[in-house]
What does this fold into?
Amino acid sequence: MTEDDDGVLPLPSLMEAWRPPTGGKRSLRGGTLRIRSGGKGRGGSAAAPMLSPAEARAKLERIVRKAPEVMVKISGKQRGATHLAEHFGYISRHGKLEVRSSEGEIITDEKRLKAIAADWDMLDQAMNAFGKERPTSMSMVLSMPGGTTDAATIHDAVQAFARVEFEGQFSYMVALHTDTAHPHVHLTVATQGADGARFNPRKADLHHWRESFAHELRQRGIAAEATPRRARGHVQKRVRSPAHHLEARTAGQGRDLDLNRLIEERAQAFARSQNPERRVEDVLALGRQKQIRGAYAEAAAALAATGKDEDRALAEDIAGFVADMPAAVSRRLERAREIMIADRSSAAADSRSRKSDALPSAESDKDKRKPPDRER
It folds into this structure.
């Protein structure tokens, strides 16, 4: 199939549907560039990098056929040599696992790991002219959904990803863990670069890293994708790990911070309000998903019109993908809708019950029609 065959796709609308968060780095034909965040007088959001027709079709196929989505998340920050050495001890399982450095060294000796932690901290302090409180390193976890690929391939892909993104600028350490439900890799990056740069990622950097990691996996024959949640129709945000950790801590301290309870309270308030109003973000989410659905529908129509079997098959997959998208509502609004439906059902049942109580029974009517004994 040539690029001309793929030229039917509505690239501008698809690029907008797949647009990542702004601010930080984005991939552009294999390289990276710095962009400015949208809003706050910075000139609005930047456009997503344009893909070739063939690249766009391949991405579209992966998305609608639900290729596994890679995970790249910031798992923590380490402050000072002692804290960093403890972290190295954790990712190495205290010397039981190999840790690979950005210089290619394979380390199992905990003393060597402590020495590296001291070196990173020394560089950070030497470059910290104003003595600010700041992290010495930042840790990330990279993985794929369980069962989608083997541990060795993930490990190899992460090492290639780290070389592309950080080598020559920031020191890093890589450790593979296989003792959980699915294999994952810990990547720890020094926040102080030798050239004076600071490692301070933003939301768009994380998205770029997901794309870069997914690319490395695809280079190794693994179907992997890295699309924003909204591009897959998701409006409800995931509950982040820090929120779960905060809830666990407050529960241990005898305080109540139940996230589900907070959602329930807000949903009850919305459902029982005389004049419920949607939040601005709710309205924007609905409009955004409508636009995303439209981009996929436009692509499906264009493909179906070519008359080619492979295009019709992809158009059908797109239609099914859009049909399976969740409703564009927050958890609060979803729960509020359930409450309102339950309230209406309860009110209808009460009304039927009152009407039934008001009607005379058949036996009672029969008794009323009986003539007095003296008339029989």
Observations:
- The chain has 13 helices and eight strands.
- Confidence is low (pLDDT under 50) at residues 24-47.
